[in-house]
Amino acid sequence: MGLFSRPKKNAGPVKPANELLAELLSLDERGPFVIQPGTDTDIEVSNEVANKSWSTGKKKVSYQARILLNEEEHTAYFWEMLKESSSGLQFKVGFETTRIKGKEVFSSRSEKFYDPKGEKVLDYQFDYGSLREAFKEIIEEAGWNFKLVILKGKTERK
């Protein structure tokens, strides 16, 4: 064990992949995310955080994630992306906190958008990273390793 390595939280038996998969898919019942079996991966996650158009502008924020379970290595590969687009004339009031730890980004934001007349047209909150942490906790408690990957291709079945 190296100087900076941490022992696994669960030294007990490793949970089989099908049981872990069922437990991860059950998170779909807890929130606004759509968590479902994937076509070329084990789990696909999506959430349209905001999607609004008004007379002078528009704003769209969407979240995607994927998990691939490698039973030989007992490793869950996790990839995620937050995509934003906006256009037009808009006035925004918001608060965002961001923390970066290695490859992991933890960000919480709350934004309100107003049209030129001062009327509120969009109000949303999103905690980027909270779902990842829930997945990570379940995966590690099952005796598996959690690995965050930057490339989406690392979560595709070969």
Class from helix and strand fractions: mainly beta
The shape, in one word, is elongated
C-alpha Rg (nearest Å): 19 Å
Secondary structure tally, helices:
2
Order of helices and strands: HEEEEEEEHE
Characterize the biggest β-sheet.
5 strands, mixed
Secondary structure: number of strands: 8
Uncertain runs = 1-7
Q: What percentage of amino acids are in beta strands?
A: over 45%
Summed up, the domain count is 1
How are the secondary structure elements laid out?
Layout: H1 17-25, E1 34-37, E2 43-54, E3 57-70, E4 75-88, E5 91-101, E6 104-114, E7 120-128, H2 130-141, E8 145-148
Task: Characterize this entry briefly.
This protein has helices at 17-25, 130-141; strands at residues 34-37, 43-54, 57-70, 75-88, 91-101, 104-114, 120-128, 145-148. With 158 residues, the protein is mainly beta. The protein has one domain.
Structure characterization notes:
- The chain has two helices and eight strands; from the N terminus they run αβββββββαβ.
- The protein is mainly β.
- It has a five-stranded mixed β-sheet with strand order 1-2-3-4-8. The chain has a three-stranded antiparallel β-sheet with strand order 5-6-7.
- It has one domain.
- Strand 2 and strand 3 form a beta hairpin.
- 17% of the residues are buried.
- The protein is 13% helix and 50% strand.
- The two termini are 32 Å apart.
